[in-house]
Amino acid sequence: MSRGLDRELLAEKAGAVERHLRRVQARLPASADEFEPASDASDAVVLHLWQATQLVIDVALSACLRLDLGAPPTYADAFDRLAGAGIIDADLRDRLVRATGFRNVLVHAYEQLDLSRVHAAAQQGPQDLRRFLAAVRDRLADDGEG
Fold this sequence. Notes:
mainly alpha
């Protein structure tokens, strides 16, 4: 199957996710109390967390098409389909579905962000993004695709 996601494209997107997550880590204050609104640090963390999350969503959508799971009507549905196909477990799916909602808040309600929530997401979310990318990579390897 030649359409959509392949190992080379996945590696490129995973590299971009890692670059964004390194920027998040570099700018994230140690505690949420130090995370000031409308600061260079908060702007950088929000931007790079959003970008990393969006790249993972893009991979999820492509993986659904690549694996013949259909075209998801929503971001959350992409993760539901991948869990249903056994690509990711239900717990990871649930966290990634929440990440899609968080991504929407980042994009559409930036001025009303709860920075303590952003801080928590920046500390806890990266491992879920990495786990997802590893699961898709492993599935492509198992299927001999790429």
